[in-house]
Design brief:
The protein is mainly alpha-helical. It has 3 helices and no strands. It has a domain of 44 residues. The protein is elongated, with a radius of gyration of 23 Å.
Length: 78
């Protein structure tokens, strides 16, 4: 995700070297949008998930697993 956003950012930033105003504007707007989207994914999304964890989850969401990977005997030994 990080490398993809950086590559796309610089790829669209190349459009800003054009002589045509529309292409320069497109390159600038798309580059800034990709940069803000990457920063939001890296900073805003994890903090939102952590802050909403208590309000969104409840006992109905947390279900028992269909099968136990670790047996009860192994849990008692540790």
């Amino acid at each position: 995700m990080f490398y993809t956003s950086i590559v796309l950012f610089f790829g669209f930033a190349v459009f800003m070297t054009s002589n045509f105003g529309g292409t320069v504007a497109l390159g600038g707007l798309v580059s800034v949008t990709l940069l803000f989207a990457m920063l939001a994914n890296l900073i805003l999304l994890p903090s939102l998930l952590i802050s909403l964890e208590d309000t969104m989850s409840n006992e109905k969401v947390m279900k028992e697993p269909k099968f136990n990977i670790i047996s009860e005997d192994a849990e008692k030994k540790s």
